């Protein structure tokens, strides 16, 4: 009988195809390919994407990575220095070995933590120069160290004609002695980099095909001006320090802009960006008088994110072009007026419940967090908010309460109408009485109020905030599991079963219990009369936990 041997057809593919396949692997898996065979060792050695991360050389049980804020907290300085030397030797040898092959370099990424920059700077300069000599197209260089000791990049980096992407972290950019010649650079990202105003203007002016520019918490800037960038499409500005006095952006080609400042500069001028389509604002001290004139400058705006504008009280938007709107964590907000007939998504999270007027056809995705008493006034505000929208897609309620003070008679006298439909409700509940058991009657009052407002098709009960009484946990099967399954038929999870803590059996019974005094004499019947069925859809366990999210399907039947 002839034996058949599986042939390795993959190894016979051209090298460039093998390298393309390897580009989808993680750096660790790329290294592992070298042990498959001599042929694969050659593929791995000539792979033009070089990714070196010092984290892979640290023994987790003995050494932790150096960060700017915990240089003195290392478990073992000696072990760290030893791993650093090993990492540097590996990078140096690997770079030289690749360069000797004569292949062009596609990408070089180096991430390293240092205690002392001066000792390693010459070696870093040599690595960068080797990459430049081999025509590197993407350079990602990350040096994590004390901010008082930064690594200045060599001048040769400004002559990298083939470089298309440059990402720097923890470095210093010094003014070159000659004009920069980064004629192919399309993406520039500076993260915790020391750079001055003149250097930025020079880079923007000389990088004529630059399309994507990002500043993340950089130092040394006082008067930032971005202009003469004729190809620039995306600009991100994130700053936390107080030195930045003014920001001027005059880029007619700009399409995406993010402004994130812990303190808004005295001068913020972005008027000359008429083609802007996406705007992200994270400006804690930006008020109504500043916000509305700003967004009025962008008539083509399609995507707007408003994040942590803590002093903003009103949002007044009228636009036929706006398609996506996000409003997050605006603690002072009390009124919204949105006239956007072409809006396709609207996310509203962690804000107060405002007065709303909308003309928007899309479903709303909303998250409300409540801290304090939940009274009838809170329910009325929630119902008025929900009723202002044509559709509610996903509704998330995170309720951290002291006590529930819902009065059904008071509520029905103000709103004698049927509940509103909600596609999906995710419920997170937690009492402030963290060290006390919460009795089911409190949840009963809470849920009664919610189901008088809306009826969800899908209901998710999450244990995320149930610190002491999770809704659902998963345990091994017990002898009485048959009785459990007969009463609450849930989906099995392999050799485990859902053991329902007291909250869910009570919740299940509460939904189905129509013998409760539910006010049959009123004009509108209690919500229990319209609930026709409860089905368990799924249980999604949390990672490395016996807890999880329980999804229920609720079938309702309301009169037309």
Write the layout of secondary structure elements.
Elements: H1 15-22, H2 27-32, H3 38-46, E1 49-53, H4 77-101, E2 107-113, H5 117-133, E3 138-144, E4 151-152, E5 165-169, E6 171-172, E7 187-191, H6 197-206, E8 212-216, E9 223-227, E10 234-239, E11 246-250, E12 256-261, E13 267-272, E14 278-282, H7 288-295, E15 303-307, E16 314-318, E17 324-328, E18 335-339, E19 345-349, E20 355-359, E21 364-371, E22 374-375, H8 376-387, E23 392-401, E24 404-405, H9 408-414, E25 420-431, H10 440-453, E26 454-461, E27 472-476, H11 481-487, E28 496-500, H12 503-512, E29 531-541, E30 548-556
Parallel strand pairs: 1-2, 2-3, 3-5, 4-6, 5-7, 7-8, 8-10, 9-11, 10-12, 11-13, 12-14, 14-15, 15-17, 16-18, 17-19, 18-20, 19-21, 21-23, 22-24, 23-25, 25-26
Antiparallel strand pairs: 26-30, 27-28, 29-30
Description:
- By secondary structure, the protein is an alpha/beta fold.
- Among the domains are: 10-47; 368-560, no CATH class.
- Helices cover 24% and strands 31% of the residues.
- The chain has an 18-stranded mixed sheet. Strands 9-11-13 form a three-stranded parallel sheet. Strands 16-18-20 form a three-stranded parallel sheet.
- The longest helix has 25 residues, at 77-101.
């Amino acid at each position: 009988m002839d034996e058949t041997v599986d042939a390795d057809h993959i190894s016979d593919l051209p090298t460039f195809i093998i390298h393309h396949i390897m580009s989808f692997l993680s750096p660790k898996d790329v290294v592992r390919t070298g042990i498959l065979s001599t042929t694969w060792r050659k593929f791995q050695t000539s792979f033009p994407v070089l990714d070196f991360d010092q984290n892979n050389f640290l023994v987790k049980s003995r050494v932790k990575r150096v960060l700017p804020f915990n240089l003195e907290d290392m478990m073992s300085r000696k072990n760290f220095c030893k791993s650093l030397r090993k990492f540097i030797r590996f990078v140096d040898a690997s770079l030289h070995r690749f360069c000797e092959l004569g292949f062009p370099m596609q990408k070089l990424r180096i991430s390293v933590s240092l205690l002392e920059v001066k000792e390693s700077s010459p070696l870093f300069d040599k690595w960068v120069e080797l990459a430049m000599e081999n025509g590197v197209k993407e350079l990602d260089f990350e040096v994590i160290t004390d901010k008082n000791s930064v690594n200045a990049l060599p001048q040769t980096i400004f002559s990298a004609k083939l470089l298309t992407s440059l990402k720097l972290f923890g470095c210093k950019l010094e003014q070159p002695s000659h004009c920069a010649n980064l004629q192919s650079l399309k993406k520039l990202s500076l993260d915790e980099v020391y750079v001055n105003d003149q250097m930025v203007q020079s880079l923007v002016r000389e990088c004529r095909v630059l399309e994507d520019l990002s500043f993340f918490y950089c130092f040394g800037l006082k008067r930032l001006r971005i202009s003469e960038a004729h190809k620039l499409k995306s600009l991100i500005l994130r700053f936390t320090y107080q030195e930045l006095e003014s920001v001027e952006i005059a880029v007619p080609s700009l399409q995406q802009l993010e402004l994130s400042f812990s303190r808004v500069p005295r001068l913020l001028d972005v008027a000359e960006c008429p083609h802007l389509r996406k705007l992200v604002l994270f400006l804690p001290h930006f008020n109504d008088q500043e916000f509305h004139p700003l967004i009025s400058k962008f008539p083509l705006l399609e995507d707007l994110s408003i994040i942590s504008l803590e002093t903003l009280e009103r949002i007044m938007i009228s636009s036929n072009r706006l398609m996506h709107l996000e409003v997050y964590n605006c603690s002072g907000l009390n009124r919204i007026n949105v006239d956007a007939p072409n809006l396709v998504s609207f996310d509203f999270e962690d804000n107060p419940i405002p007065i709303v007027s909308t003309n928007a056809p899309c479903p709303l995705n909303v998250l409300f967090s409540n801290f304090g008493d939940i009274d009838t006034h809170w329910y009325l505000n929630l119902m008025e908010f929900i009723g202002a929208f044509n559709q509610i897609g996903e509704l998330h309620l995170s309720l951290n309460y002291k006590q529930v003070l819902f009065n059904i008679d008071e509520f029905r006298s103000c709103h004698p109408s049927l509940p509103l439909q909600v596609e999906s409700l995710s419920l997170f509940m937690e009492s402030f009485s963290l060290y006390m058991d919460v009795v089911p009657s409190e949840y009963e009052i809470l849920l009664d109020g919610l189901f008088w407002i809306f009826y969800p098709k899908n209901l998710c009960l999450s244990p995320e905030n149930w610190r002491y009484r999770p809704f659902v946990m998963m345990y091994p099967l017990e002898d009485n599991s048959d009785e459990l399954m007969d009463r609450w038929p849930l989906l099995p999870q392999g050799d485990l079963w859902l053991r329902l803590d007291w909250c869910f059996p009570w919740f299940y019974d509460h939904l189905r219990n129509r013998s409760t005094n539910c006010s049959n004499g009123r004009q509108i019947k209690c919500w229990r009369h319209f609930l026709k069925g409860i089905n368990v859809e799924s249980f999604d366990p949390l990672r490395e936990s016996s807890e999880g999210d329980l999804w229920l399907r609720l079938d309702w039947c309301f009169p037309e």
